[in-house]
Structure formats: C-alpha cells, structure tokens
Amino acid sequence: MTYHPRSEFMATIMDRGFLADCTDYQGLDERLSRGVVTAYIGYDATARSLHVGHLLNIMLLRWFQQTGHRPITLMGGGTTKVGDPSFRADERPLLTPEAIDVNIAGMKSVFARYLDYGATETGALMLNNAEWLDGLNYLDFLRDIGRHFSVNRMLSFESVKSRLDREQSLSFLEFNYMILQAYDFLEIHRRYGCVLQMGGSDQWGNIVNGIDLTRRVLDHEIYGLTTPLLTTSDGRKMGKSAGGAVWLNGDMLSPYEFWQFWRNTTDADTGRFLLLYTDLEAGECRRLGALGGAEINEAKIVLANRVTALLHGEEAAAAAEATARQVFEEGGVGGELPTLVLAPAEVGNGISVSQLFVRSGLAPSGKEARRLIESGGARVDDEAITDPGRMFQAAMLARPVKLSAGRKRHALVTIG
C-alpha cells in the first residue's frame, strides 16, 4: 500500500507492522488527525489470564494512547456466555457467570501495565459488555437490531463459511455471537463516542457487522482496523511453546519463563518482534534485528528484557536475565527458575524422575517425559539421565535439584 498517513498513530502502526486491513484508511487517518479519537478492543473471558497471543493488540492499544487517543478495553462478560465461533472447529465450552467473573478479575491486572486508566481526556476505560447485554429483552432486540442483519451475508463470512464447508455443526447460540459483537460497537459508540474497533484479522467479519449496524441505526461513520495473525518464521502460531500457552499473569507463568520465551526467539523474528512488542525506537529495532552471528543473541536479550519489563517490571526483567546468565553461562542454578516444591507425603518412598519432569511442567505427560529422557534430552543437575524409572528419595531433594529439558528449559524441584 502506498498511502502516506498524516496521523502519528497510523504512521506508527504502519511503520512497525501492526496494520493488516482497515475499512477506510484515509477517512480514519483524517479523523485521527483532527483530535482525540476513542477506539476499543474486546476480550472474552475464556481463561483466568490473557496470553502472548493477545499481546499484539494490547501493544496496539498502548500505541493508540501514546499517540494522543483514548483506548477502551472491553471485557466480554456478556459475549463470553455465548462464545466466539470464529474459525473454530467446535463450540466453546459454556462458562458459568461466576467463572466468567473470576476470569475477568484475573485478566484486568495486565492491562494496567500497558495503559493509563487515569481521569484524563485520553485516559483508558475498562468496560464490561454484560452491562448492556445481560438486560436485553429478546423480542425488542430481534425487532430493533435483528432486522438489520442478512442471514445470507452472515453465512458468507469466512469464519462461518469455513465451518459449514467442513460440515461442522454451528449452533444457533454461536450464530448470534456476531450480532452481539456488532451491537457492542453500536452501544459503545452511543455511550462513549467510540468510532473505531480494532482486533485481529480473524475478527474482520464481526467488526464490519458492527460498522454496518451503526450506519443503519444511527447513520454515523465509524471504522474498523485489524492486525495480522502472526506466525513465527518457522510457521508456528505466535504464543505457543513446548509447555503450552504463554500466559501473561505471573502466577500462571513465572517472569523468568516469560523472559525465556522471548530470549528463545529465532534470529529471523527478532527485529520484527522488537518492533511489535516493545516501544524501542523503530530504527534501533531494525538495527538490532539485522545483527548476525553471536551479536543477535544480545538483541534477543534486549527483546526479552524490554517485553518482560513492560509486563512484570524492570526488577523482574533484570532478575530473569541474571538467572539466565547464571544457568547458561556459569552452569549455576539461578534463583528465578520455576520451582516445584513437593510435600514429603508426595514423595513417600520415592518419586520417579519422569514424574518430576511432568510435575515441574517440563513435559506435558509421562509418555513425553519418558521419550525426552530416553532420547538423551534430559539432564539432572547438568548431568545426562537416560533411565525414566530412576527414583528420587526425599533426602535427595532436601536441596534444590535442577531439571533440564534440552538446553533452554529448566526447573528446580525440592522438598518443602
């Protein structure tokens, strides 16, 4: 695209690689140039923590605020009761209202690390769509809102079409999700003057529905903008690791493990991730990303430190780096390694090393632990181990024992 933006926000996100598509580049850019604009991104409360897959759009909201605009984080207390069917093969498990509230409480703390919720013109707002969705009268909603939706058009959206083409069931409950999300945009526009919805490119159909509904009901001009769905240079979905989801809450993934995830970025992704996940100046991101040989490892440490400091603070980032250097360069244990503390009763007459690898999170199952050990990929206190049945007694765990899965994943285990 050759469009040259006038607004600082559009120029920033285009330069750093955030922009996948926009309903009206020039119209939105001109609106952003005229003064403070309000935009939102929605987050359904399907887990107690957000994960790295959400971080791209959190950074997008951060740039939106830093370039002089007001972001809204919309918690899906209402829409989570339905579940977004976009590009899924099956229906999401339904959560109780109590579980949804617990998940929202767990997610909220992360946003405060990236956004300023102060009472200023550009201060972020945190809303919950249960506020307007929970009290809807079904017949009134059908008459006033449902009449604006064409089922033919809804069936044409790729997120729905791909599911139907595979002859996978799509419930009426799920089919209503896109109507509810469209109504969110209309309602936030009415209440807060919000003129922009942003999200991942898988949300394009839902965003366009909200724009169409608002135009039909109020005849107002509003906009949509999407970010790319990221994969790593080796084709993996961004945010997945050998240990599962990379959670943002520190009680679900330690700051050290979070730091290590970024330190393990491939050479080819380092510059791109610096641009997307840090607020380091763009030219410096590109300089670091272009380094070769051993120097690229220092660029990865900058990436890990910057991303970890944003989420967990400068001290946590420094402690994680110090532990990594102690573990990898000095052969030590490192104070920030994730630690499994076992009660004496859990050890009993002994516990196998394969169980320790599973319990510590270094292997997802006993089968995988045995495969790791038998293939020579496991170490105990930096010494190779090949017998998955080797037993550890309580006395052997009186001091922390270091477990290693490959060269990059480590944990400590001890008796508490």
Descriptive report:
Helices cover 46% and strands 14% of the residues. With 416 residues, the protein is of the alpha/beta class. The chain folds into three domains: 8-227, HUPs (Rossmann fold, 3-Layer(aba) Sandwich), CATH 3.40.50.620; 254-328, Orthogonal Bundle (Tyrosyl-Transfer RNA Synthetase), CATH 1.10.240.10; 339-415, Roll (Structural Genomics Hypothetical 15.5 Kd Protein In mrcA-pckA Intergenic Region, Chain A), CATH 3.10.290. The chain has a six-stranded mixed beta sheet with strand order 1-6-5-2-3-4, sandwiched between helices. α4 links the parallel β3 (70-76) and β4. α10 crosses α11 (204-218). The model has no long low-confidence stretch (mean pLDDT 88).
CATH topology of the largest domain: Rossmann fold
How large is the radius of gyration?
24 Å
What's the CATH architecture name of the largest domain? 3-Layer(aba) Sandwich
> What is the 3D shape?
globular
Largest sheet, in brief, is: 6 strands, mixed
Residue share in helices? 40-55%
Structural class: alpha/beta
The total number of structural domains is 3
Strand order of the largest sheet: 1-6-5-2-3-4
CATH superfamily of the largest domain: HUPs
How many alpha or pi helices?
19
Strand content: 5-15%
What's the CATH class label of the largest domain? Answer: Alpha Beta
Total strand count, please? Answer: 15
Average pLDDT = 88
Poorly predicted ranges: none
Rounded to the nearest angstrom, the distance between the terminal CA atoms is: 59 Å
